[in-house]
Fold:
Amino acid sequence: MKKNLLSALIAGLFALPAMAFEPFVVKDIRVEGIQRTEAGTVFSYLPVKVGDTLSDDKAAQAIKALFATGFFRDVRIEVEKDVMVVVLQERPAISSLNFVGMKEFEKDAIVKALREVGIATGRIFDRSLLDKAEQELKRQYLSRGKYAAQITTTVTPLERNRVGINFNIVEGDAAKIRQINIVGAKAFKEKDLLSLFELTTPGWLTWYSKNDQYSRQKLSADLEKLKSFYLDRGYLEFNVDSTQVSISPDKQDVFITLNVTEGDRYRVASVKLAGDLSLPEAEFRKLIQVRAGDVFSREKLNESTKAISDRLGTEGYAFANVNAAPEINREKRLVDFTIFVDPGKRVYVRRVNVSGNTKTRDEVVRREIRQMESGWFDAAKVQASKERVDRLGFFSDVAIETPPVQGTSDQVDVNVNVTEKATGNLMLGVGTSSTDKLILSGSISQNNFLGSGNNVSIEVNSAKSSRTYAFSYTNPYFTTDGVSQGFDIYHRTVDTKSTDIAYYKSQSTGAGIRFGFPINEHQSFSFGIAADSTTIDVFNESPTYYKRYVNEFGKTNVSFPVTLAWISDSKNSFFFPTSGTYQRAAVEIGLPGGDLTYYRANYQLQHFIPLSKRFTLMLNGDIGYANGLGGKKLPFFKNYYAGGVNSVRGYKSSTLGTPGTLEGEDRLGGNRKVVGNAELLWGLPGFEKSARVGLFFDAGQVYASGDKFALGDLRYSAGLTASWISPVGPLKFSLGTPLNKKSTDDSEVFQFQLGTTF
Structure:
């Protein structure tokens, strides 16, 4: 009985807007009351068409269908003779969204978030969605630690049945983490454990990092770090029992309490191998870092299983499964491990696919790929391919995937996806001096000319002290096996009057050709020969040494310099490496037969050491030695100089020197150079691939012939460095302070380089 009554009430509810009438054949349908909605839209939702018989039931269905669209606040059906009249009252549309008092977020980001909950300009206004919109706004503020944010919403009616929605926001201050407690930690000091955390109490850098604001994601990551710390030190049964986050009544302070159980410290009793050992067991044993008697370390165990998996990958087992199963003896606090090896099926590579290269030709990428099609899969070659493509410097990101080929069990594809970046470079140098006021220099180069991988560069230096016009071309694959070829043409003039270098003028014109020969994946050898004509002018204020040199060898000299170089490069990235080593040993020799016979030998060693996921230590050493050959002196314009943004920062460019390299306030340069740099580098959060900063310590000096090398003569500096691949080009800054400046030294605290990419 109750069920029948409820059905009758529902039917009556939908029948109320339509007056009871005798069924009739609809000859026309008229829509009234719409302002924005097209009549065709209404007709498309109506279950009644012209020619249909309209009854009470059909009218109720029509009303229900139009209500279901959500477009209308009221729907009525009236009858005029044989015409069906649909009378509608539209819901208002959202005309605008305004945010008053919002400073924490960009408007576009919030508008996008509100659109996902149904509130957006142009959409039908539904008051029930306002609550969702307010909750979404509050959620956004909670994610920034602003728990006291207050949001008031006002809806203003506008003409043409529209509304404007205003969100009045009082953001308040972000709540700060005032205390983090770890309850149950006994084996290690609490402060040492908290140093692992990204979340922290307010400090001098937290205004930027926001690490003093609570974040569930950051806390989860910190808990994982804490767990790893204990597991790497033998606490196999360590557990975080509970996490409590509380906020003060004024919503300004956050308190975090962690309850942990450390458990006992375990040692490794034995490590066994089981499963399908497709290689000799002795080979696998070499890869296992966990030894019997050692304190258990999850990190070493994971590295062991990964090393075995990678080793199998080099044999074609792309989907090897290597897992370690523990057997715990709690009484003796020992653990036995059995490493189960399942190599799976050996697979080969069907295709190598290159994508994302909108400018660069496929062949430029493919010639760096070391994994061949139709060959057995080799994980080491795949990784080497990724590194080689990345070292080209043409791409901002390089990713390689090895998905299985559908329908097969022994084939994979190697998909190389690259993201193009600007490879043209317009470098601008700006400097000042007491006479030049403004010194401009620049070079224009294209490292990936027309997508061919070839390098073309034009250098133009318009400074009063040094003018250069040079053209260079390099084809890195002159032959298919990687022999490179390049040539250079240049004309340079030097006038040192406005610099700190002793006064002279020179004009040099020359051309050369060079070749590079690959030795292996990371090493190469290069050879180059050139012809050069240099004219030197000296003046009354020029040093006596310069005048004697010109008197002895003449104003114009022709030379035939030969350059030999060995390069080893295992850095893992072109721009911002975090591991690997770069070495370069080179010698330039002025051949007999020319007017100038000399040699200049240089060696540079650069090493990147990953200290953690965030921090990298860079060590760099650069030494040079030069002298004359065949009884001739070293040309003074071949001397070394030091100081500046790419040498010993904090000292002006080319101003370092021992007493033998100085004449009054002028610098003569020296035939020996020693420069060392140490930098602690880290990426800026959110900009790891485009910017990083660091602390540096530099040391260096140049020595004249006959001067003895002494550590006391070295100049030291320290400071802050920053590099940024900005939208307007690569920028490099340094703020350096000399640590042992002498009266003859010239300091320069702020130094920079500026470039513009295109």
The first helix runs from residue 2 to 15. Residues 2-90 form a domain with the Ubiquitin-like (UB roll) fold (CATH 3.10.20.310). The chain has 13 helices and 36 strands. The chain has six domains: 2-90, 93-170, 176-261, 267-342, 351-420, 424-757.
